[in-house]
Amino acid sequence: MELDQFIIMLNHIHGIIILNSETVGAGFPRSNKNKGHGDHTPTLGKIVAYFKYQTTKRINESQGTPGRKLWQRNYYEHVIRNEEDLRQIQEYIANNPLKWELDSENPNKL
């Protein structure tokens, strides 16, 4: 797994996660070395769930707010199939902070 372009906004995150098909469960054949021990192959869903779990746990510990929910259920995903698509999404992510002034959830919206 590799993290490409990303941005952390006040109320959401955008990021490109690059998954290696040899190590990630994406419909590819898996080795039998873990047979009988459960499937420990990381999927995108498992990666996102772990990120949400760890960030929620650490934020709640630091804020003294045990059990408080921080994330919406689920996430949006898009499979990037070519270099042009990748370039456009990287540009969208890089320019996202400029759109914050117009966001309906921005408390300082003009």
Q: Any overview of this molecule?
A:
- By secondary structure, the protein is α+β, with helices and mostly antiparallel strands.
- It is built from 2 helices and 2 strands; from the N terminus they run ββαα.
- Strands 1-2 form a two-stranded antiparallel ribbon.
- The longest helix has 20 residues, at 44-63.
- Residues 23-30 have low confidence and may be disordered.
Task: List the defining traits of the structure above.
110 residues, alpha+beta, two-stranded antiparallel sheet, flat
Shape label: flat
Our measurement of the CA-to-CA distance between the termini, rounded to an integer number of angstroms, reads 39 Å
What is the radius of gyration computed over CA atoms, rounded to a whole number of angstroms? Answer: 17 Å
Mean pLDDT across the residues is: 84
Number of strands: 2
Helix content: 25-40%
Q: What fraction of the residues are assigned to beta strands by DSSP?
A: 5-15%
In sequence order, what are the helices and strands, one letter per element?
EEHH
How does the helix and strand content classify structurally? Answer: alpha+beta
Across the major sheet, the strand order is 1-2
Largest sheet: 2 strands, antiparallel
Annotation field: number of helices:
2
Low-confidence blocks of residues: 23-30
What layout of secondary structure does this protein have?
Blueprint: E1 2-8, E2 13-18, H1 44-63, H2 83-95
Antiparallel strand pairs: 1-2
Q: What is this structure, in a nutshell?
A:
With 110 residues, this protein is an alpha+beta fold. 30% of the residues lie in helices and 12% in strands.
